[in-house]
Design goal:
Layout (H helix, E strand, L loop, with lengths): L1 H27 L7 E4 L7 H7 L7 H9 L15 E4 L10 E8 L5 E6 L6 E3 L7 E10 L5 E4 L3 E5 L6 E7 L6 E3 L7 E7 L14 E7 L10 E5 L5 E5 L8 E9 L12 E5 L5 E9 L2 E4 L2 H6 L7 E13 L2 E17 L3 E23 L7 E25 L8 E17 L4 E13 L6 E12 L1
Parallel strand pairs: 10-16
Antiparallel strand pairs: 1-2, 2-5, 3-4, 3-6, 6-7, 6-8, 9-11, 11-14, 12-15, 13-14, 15-16, 17-19, 17-25, 18-25, 19-20, 20-21, 21-22, 22-23, 23-24, 24-25
């Protein structure tokens, strides 16, 4: 009797455990609903990719038989093509999973195209045979430890782009057959490009095979320029492009081609483009005649009888170290000198007003084709604006009386600021004449004056 009770108890316990196992597995093996799709078709995977995705050799004949039914799991290293079409997902409870089944359908017609199973509880699978470029969706079915479907993920949309490793073997200007552009030269911005897999750029959101192009700076900082495609060879080996030369900043660039899948040309000498000035820096020196006119504060008018002082001159030195497509940037020095005198009935007053200011300078050059060589540009003129600050110096202002006695001279050094503009017209490649106007104001506790200083100068560019 006791043996029968033990037998029935053992059977009951076995049934309970067998019935509970699927329920436990189902609760523990529900996959994360956010599946990550990494599916990109290409025929140009690297050797590293092959090693990373290679599957180990099977240990027994049972696994061999399973792999023959599904070629995606053959133990040999994957081909480059296979290593790029991978679907992956996340699993919160891998210990409760026996395997996964992955179903792939077309995104539009929902037609089943692939049904694949993983080895054990691996959370990624190689799609084989490869899917052609297109839009698809897939779901993951989780099998518990007793081999029953336990959970199913939502459908995840994926896009497979056509992948072609682009190559650029040469890029040269059509005008002078060079990869170096001198901005002083006349250039239409057209380039002839040679290479492989140079497909047309993307035209619509549904395109799955295309190549995008850009001129990118060699250094991380700098502007990126997109070309205009003028013509493209049907073999996708040659193309003619054009950049707006007037917008290019000096620097070293690489012509980068990126296909739809993200493959791109590496930076090397074959796709390098250099943009530079023959003369990368300028030093301008000008001197000339000026005539200050006091705009406000009546001190000069009251004591010296005038607000206009024609016995004046100025000198300016400008250094331009930065040349960009939108203008030149530099620093400078501006000095002015004015001789003042007044003859009264009983006394005379004379003195000297000098200003010196440091400048921040912006110049916009105006260039035209050279008369002697149409392939070159000559500098017609330059528009300049500048501003800065410095000091105004009243030097030896003194009263002289008829009896020969003089009052003690006045010396005063005060802060001042200047803002101005000029136009330089080049008579030759180096010599220019300049029309300039500045506004200078001085900050004195009991006498804050402002004056306009027009001037005409002659200058030389070193």
């Amino acid at each position: 009797m006791e043996s029968r009770i033990c037998f029935f108890a053992a059977v009951l316990i076995s049934l309970l455990f067998c019935g509970a196992a699927p329920m436990f597995a189902q609760a523990a093996s529900k996959p994360n609903a956010t599946a990550n799709a990494n599916a990109t078709a290409t025929a140009n995977a690297t050797a590293t990719s092959q090693q990373e995705h290679a599957q180990p050799q099977p240990e027994d004949g049972g696994e061999n038989a399973e792999e023959e039914e599904n070629p995606a799991f053959v133990g040999n290293p994957l081909t480059p093509e296979e290593s790029w079409q991978i679907l992956s997902w996340e699993e919160k409870n891998p210990g409760a999973v026996l395997k996964y089944e992955v179903v792939v359908e077309s995104a539009s017609a929902h037609e089943e195209l692939r049904r694949m199973e993983t080895k054990r509880s691996e959370t990624s699978i190689h799609v084989f045979p490869l899917l052609p470029p297109g839009r698809y969706r897939y779901k993951v079915v989780t099998y518990d430890l007793v081999g029953s479907p336990a959970a199913e993920s939502d459908w995840t949309n994926i896009t497979i782009y056509a992948a072609h490793q682009p190559e650029v073997s040469s890029i040269k200007t059509t005008l002078n057959n060079s990869s170096t552009i001198y901005l002083e030269e006349v250039n239409d911005g057209k380039f002839a490009v040679k290479g492989r897999n140079l497909f047309p750029p993307k035209e619509g959101k549904d395109d799955l095979e295309y190549t995008e192009y850009a001129l990118v700076p060699k250094k991380s900082k700098g502007r990126t320029y997109k070309p205009k495609i003028l013509s493209q060879d049907p073999s996708n080996r040659k193309m003619e492009i054009q950049f707006n030369i007037d917008t290019l900043d000096p620097g070293v660039y690489h012509f980068k081609a990126t296909d739809a899948s993200g493959l791109y040309t590496p930076n090397n000498g074959d796709n390098e483009v250099v943009v530079r000035y023959t003369k990368p820096m300028d030093l301008d020196l000008s001197i000339g005649y000026s005539c200050p006119m006091i705009l406000y504060d009546d001190t000069f008018k009251k004591y010296m009888g005038s607000n206009i002082w024609p016995l004046s001159g100025n000198a300016k030195l400008v250094f331009i170290p930065i040349k960009l497509s939108w203008g030149y940037l530099g620093v400078g020095l501006l000095g002015t000198y004015t001789r003042m005198n007044f003859e009264g009935d009983y006394f005379d007053i004379d003195g000297n007003l000098m200003t010196a200011n440091g400048l921040l300078v912006y110049q916009k050059p105006i260039k035209v084709a050279s008369r002697d060589d149409p392939t070159k540009k000559r500098l017609l003129g330059t528009v300049e604006v500048h501003a800065g600050g410095g000091a105004a110096y009243f030097y030896k202002y003194q009263y002289h009386y008829e009896n020969g006695s003089d009052l003690d001279p006045l010396y005063s050094l005060d802060a001042c600021a200047v803002v101005g503009a000029s136009f330089q017209y080049y008579l030759t490649s180096r010599i220019f004449v300049e029309a300039q106007a500045d506004f200078i104001t001085s900050f004195i506790s009991d006498m804050t004056y402002g004056m306009v200083v027009p001037s005409i100068n002659i200058g030389y560019q070193f």
